[in-house]
Structures are given as C-alpha cells and as structure tokens.
Prior knowledge:
Layout: H1 3-9, E1 24-29, H2 38-41, E2 44-50, E3 59-63, E4 69-76, E5 87-91, H3 97-109, E6 116-118, H4 135-138, H5 140-149, H6 153-168, E7 194-198, H7 205-214, E8 219-223, H8 227-237, E9 246-249, E10 252-253, E11 258-263, E12 270-271, E13 280-285, H9 287-294, E14 301-304, H10 310-315, H11 318-324, E15 327-331, H12 338-349, E16 353-359, E17 367-373
Parallel strand pairs: 1-2, 1-5, 2-4, 5-6, 7-8, 7-14, 8-9, 10-13, 14-15
Antiparallel strand pairs: 3-4, 11-12, 11-13, 15-17, 16-17
Helix pairs in contact: 1-6, 5-12
Amino acid sequence: MSLASMIKKTHLLRPNALPNSYSLAIVCISSYLQSIPESLLLNAKTIFILQYKADCPTAVTLSTPNNAQHTIPVLPFDKLRDEIEFDILFFHPEFSTMWLGASAQHLRGLGIESYYIWMPTPHNRGICTTHDSTYYPSNKTALDNVFDRLADEVSRRIFASRIRALTTGNIGYIELSEYPQYFHPLVQPSLGDIVIDGGVSENINQQAGFIKAVGDTGKIYGFEPDPIGFEKARESLKKHDAKGIFQLIPSGLWHKRDTLHFDLAGDGTHVSHQGSPDSCPCEVISVDEFVDALSLKKVDLIKLDVEGAEVNVIKGAIKTITRFKPKLAISLYHAPKDLYYIPRLLLELDPQYKIYIGHHHACLYETILYARRH
C-alpha cells in the first residue's frame, strides 16, 4: 500500500466532537466534575473520575427538560475496566497537553483506543497542534521514500497517521504506540549497555527506566545543558541510582565543541537562535569528541531528545555511529522536516539500519525514530 493510500485509511481515534450516543460515559478529573455542562450530563449514564478522592460525590442529579430527575452515578475510573457498552468522552474544559497524554495512557490501560474528547484544542499552537495542509504534497517524494524504508506495518501506520494529523490539523488521527517511550520491543537499552542520553531535563522517568535496564554492568552518560534542569535531575537521580550507573554531564550535545546560548524552558530548553536576552550560555560537545575523550570501547544506544538540535548532534556522531553501529532512539517532532530528513540522513550513513517509528503522546509530541542493524 502506498503512503497516500494509508493516509486516507487512517482512523480517527479521538474525535473532538459530541457523540450521538444512547450510552455515554464521561471521564474527567475530580476538580472539573462541577464544570461539566448540562448538555453533556443529560446524555450521560455514568461519570468515571481520574484521581478519584474519598470526598467525591457519589452521584450528580439534574432536572431534565420534562422536569424529571436524572441521576448519574460517579465512580472511580478503574470501575470502567469491565464495561463495554459505553461511548467514552474525556472531558477537560481547558487545553492541556498533559491531560491529553494522561487520558490516552489511562484509557489505553483499560484497552480503550478510541473515544471522544471535549477539550478546546487550538490549531497551530506550537508543535502540539500544528496544521499544514500542504505538508504531504510539498514533501511527497521525501516522505514516500521514508515510508518505503520503514521496517514494519505498525511503523507505516503511525507514520501515515502523524502526516494525516499534521495535514488536517486534527490530532485525533494519531496512532499511539503500545510500548513505553524509548522501549521499542527491538530497540531499547539492555543489560550491560553503554548509553549516550542526549537531553535529560528535570523529569527523569525514562532515565530511571534506563538505569534499571542496563543494570550494574551498564553505564549511561546523560547530557543536560540547562543548569537548573541539571541540578533538579541530579537530585532526582539520587533516588534511582545508588550505584552510580548514570553519569550526568552539565553540557549539551552539538556537532562540535562550542559555547551556545540556550533559552531555558524546563523540558523545552533549546538553543537560542535569536539571541534572546534571557538566554544562558552553555557548553556543548559532540558525541564523537566525548567518546574519544573517554576512550569508550563501545556505544550500544544513542537516545536524542535535544529540542531541535537532533540533526546537528547526529552530524557530530558520525564516527561513533559508523564505528559502533549503536541502536538509535531519536526525536522526530521538533521540526516538520525531521520526519523525513532524519531517517534519510541515518540511512545515508548506514543503509543496513532498520527504521521503526513510534509515537507516545495524544498530540504531535513524542514521535520517535527507533533504529538498529539486524
């Protein structure tokens, strides 16, 4: 099947719309229970609460247009596990990428892939809702070439779904991967691995998983240029790394050793191309120079989430990739061209790499290229 055909066949998994349903269940967090509009409640059979608390009401009662009483049970979210008769609607009265992701994660945990969303989702708000109707026709040859080189059907579906989301502006098309981020079934850190981890930040969920995966015989070199994020990550890592498996380095990755200015934005800290007055000078180094300086005998995995600097970092890791042929996990979502340019760059370095695509958020964040030589 061609990429164009697969784009057309992509399913709308999370429509931002009202269901025409006789059996509707609303999912929300407890703090927004009182914000659900009556137009939704009149059609609801049950409300399921994420982060259910003991003081949550057990029911919501309202008057119907014919003056009857409509009582809706309020239950903990996990009670939805054994139900199959409901159309599900996730309700959140303000835009939140965090809760878009959380709703997808929790509902998937119950086996629910397709549901409705009531959330005001803006178009063209950064990379989370970007809409470019010309994206596929403008880049057709490059995208088709990557699609033809993807290693499995799942990767091709996710690739197509992301393009449809981008071209329509409807993030409900995006298909989510069934495995945790950076733990693709065939591309993940393993016992004894030496890992280059580009982009740590203060949230170390994946890093804690890396530490466990590589074990006592492995080593992880993590790079974080943001001095605030570095200190927070260092404190958090102490809880997970009693044996010093993870070495956190106060530097960014780039294609050469340099001092660059970064806009400090927590998880989104990135190189400042505009020379912002609030930017901070940070040291950067290439993967190749770092590997040579430590005389590393192997590199088993390179993970990059470096807020748009991925191409530069790959160019500074050519020697390491060519020599050690490591597994790769690289973000593809920071610039629209990354979706086709980065896979093409890696295949030019080594055509023997098998390329997989995963996606790990209910918006355009967290599209990851996974690659390995078989």
